[in-house]
Specification:
The complex is a heterodimer of chains A (226) and B (300). Chain A is mainly α and 226 residues long. In chain A, helix 1 packs antiparallel against helix 3, helix 1 packs parallel to helix 4 and helix 6 runs antiparallel to helix 7. The longest helix of chain A is centred in the last third of the chain and has 39 residues. Chain B is of the alpha/beta class. In chain B, 35% of the residues lie in helices and 23% in strands. Chain B has twelve helices and eleven strands. A six-stranded mixed beta sheet of chain B has the order 7-8-9-4-10-11, with helices on both faces. In chain B, strands 1-3-2-5-6 form a five-stranded mixed beta sheet. In chain B, helix 6 crosses helix 8 and helix 8 packs parallel to helix 9. The chains are: A mainly alpha (226), B alpha/beta (300).
């Protein structure tokens, strides 16, 4: 593989990672909206579409392996390929989390839980992923650090949401203790909401991982990895 | 510290990508000294001319003991010239003129009274093409120690009761074992060395170098004429030797430098040492954009 072809393949790799990220992000945001609006049709569609993400992820991972095997990359090339390799894994996990959200969507449920704003939490995490991928694409190290800072706020919001959900569950069990069915439904609803908050928080963590790998690629700075 | 007074560094601060600036930053960053061990070879402001051709310019570097230091760079960049400065092999080239200082364990090798025979015994050299003597495997090993008077053999030695056959046998076995060749040749020590394969001949040359008990081993592309299996054996051997010896190796194979060396020095066209640092740093995040372009194959 001549240097020109190699350069083309490196450029294509980066472009394909960004394209995969755009698809993953679109699916994730659709999953958040589907969950918030109770759109089970779109949710089912999202679950079925996950195979496509997996096969694109595996193809790109294979491309990284091939480039390592055939070119023994060093320096900036090495950092681009290893960062891409790791970012791909994060993207695949975000797609899995989108499937989790879609699987939890219930028909007609306007909100998963009326006391927490899933859509806002979900979109914040989505914006973090978009910023991290953009930083990877445009090689902007400041943007990588900004993603890590945003995550602190998201973690706090998720923690607040979790506390509120648990507090309300306890309060409802106290007031509705005479009704056997209602507490069970409340527990299910709260569990679903807690798991959703956890998944969104994890999407934020994956966004930070992507930003950390991008920062390593750009500046060989591994600070965000720890 | 002069502009090219280069020592290995632990820092990981990235440099900008402007060629001139990043070269400067690369040099400036190498102020914090961290060697694998004590300095074995200390080179300061070495300049070499071949007639009017200024082949090596103001090169300074400290080479730590018991480690592998790789010298890489495009053809004609001065890396072999630099290697030959380390045991004054350039003295043998009439047109060559060397200025500067090379110290081994603090002793100046370019001192007018330096004993060149002793120097080259202490700093051995292995060349690109295996060059065994057209003698037996045993004689190839014992030739050096016999020349240095460390082993006496033959009729006179026997007459005066100084026959060192036993010592020679031990020496041959030790050197061949150190060079990972003993198992392959111990049943044919009296066969002609030229009957060995290329890889075996090269390991014999390394064994021959070890037989005179050097401190430093200089290798000028020792595996470039060998197949991948023989190359792998040489590389394993180099790593093993670095536990006891200071190895300095010139290689065109950057993956080889990345595999086996502790420090890497990158020379670029014009006889300049551009960057010298831990091998991991050079191959993961070099300071100099010119070094990055060279090791990634964008030029050179």
């Amino acid at each position: 593989m001549a240097r020109t072809q190699y350069d083309e393949r490196l450029t294509t790799l980066r472009t394909d990672v960004v394209l995969l990220a755009e698809t993953v992000l679109e699916r994730y945001e659709d999953a958040v909206v589907a969950m918030a609006t109770g759109d089970t049709r779109r949710a089912d569609q999202l679950v079925r579409q996950d195979d496509e993400i997996n096969s694109r992820y595996l193809a790109l991972e294979q491309e990284c392996t091939t480039l390592i095997a055939r070119r023994q990359p060093v320096a900036g090339d090495l950092r681009l390929i290893t960062a891409s390799f790791k970012i791909l894994t994060d993207l695949e996990r975000i797609a899995d989390l989108a499937v989790n959200l879609a699987s939890r969507t219930e028909y007609g449920a306007a909100e998963i839980h009326d006391t927490i704003d899933i859509r806002t939490l979900g979109m914040t995490a989505g914006e973090m992923v978009a910023s991290a991928v953009n930083a990877y694409e445009t090689e902007t190290s400041d943007a990588c650090r900004a993603v890590a800072e945003t995550d602190t706020g998201l973690d706090e919001d998720c923690e607040t949401a979790n506390r509120r959900l648990i507090r309300e569950l306890i309060a409802e069990r106290t007031t509705d203790s005479h009704d056997e069915r209602e507490p069970a439904a409340t527990v299910d609803r709260t569990t679903r909401a807690l798991l959703t908050v956890r998944d969104i928080e994890r999407v934020g963590d994956h966004a930070v991982n992507i930003a950390a790998r991008a920062l390593y690629m750009i500046d060989s700075d591994a600070k965000l990895l720890y | 510290m002069s502009e090219t007074d280069i020592t290995p560094d632990t820092g990981s601060t990235a440099a900008t990508t402007t060629a001139g600036e990043s070269d400067e930053q690369a040099r400036d960053a190498w102020t914090e000294y961290r060697a694998a061990g004590e300095t074995k070879l200390s080179v300061e402001d070495i300049n070499v001319w071949y007639g009017d051709d200024h082949a090596l310019k103001d090169v300074s570097m400290d080479i730590p003991e018991e480690s592998v230091t790789a010298l890489i760079g495009p053809s004609g960049c001065g890396k072999s010239t630099f290697l030959r400065c380390l045991n004054r092999m350039n003295d043998r080239i009439k047109a060559a003129r060397v200025e500067g200082s090379v110290e081994v364990d603090g002793t100046q090798i370019y001192h007018p009274d330096a004993n060149l025979v002793e120097l080259r015994k202490r700093i051995g050299m292995v060349f690109q093409s295996p060059n065994p003597f057209p003698k037996s495997i045993r004689e190839n090993i014992s030739y050096g120690p016999r020349k240095h008077g460390e082993i006496e053999k033959g009729l006179l030695a026997r007459l005066f009761g100084r026959d060192d056959t036993e010592a020679e046998t031990e020496l041959v076995e030790r050197a061949l074992k150190q060079a990972a060749l003993w198992d392959e040749v111990n049943d044919r020590l009296d066969d002609n060395a030229l009957g060995l394969s290329g890889g075996q001949q090269q390991r014999l040359c390394i064994a021959r170098c070890l037989a005179v008990d050097p401190d430093v081993i200089l290798m000028d592309e020792p595996a470039s004429a060998l197949d991948p299996i023989a190359t792998s054996k040489i590389e394993d051997l180099v790593e093993e030797l670095a536990k006891e010896y200071t190895v300095v190796i010139v290689t065109h194979n950057m993956q080889q430098a990345a595999r086996i060396s502790d420090q890497t020095a990158v020379f670029l066209t014009g006889g300049e040492l551009i960057e010298y640092d831990d091998t991991e740093k050079i191959f993961e995040n070099p300071e100099s954009q010119r070094v990055e372009d060279y090791i990634t194959g964008k030029f050179g």
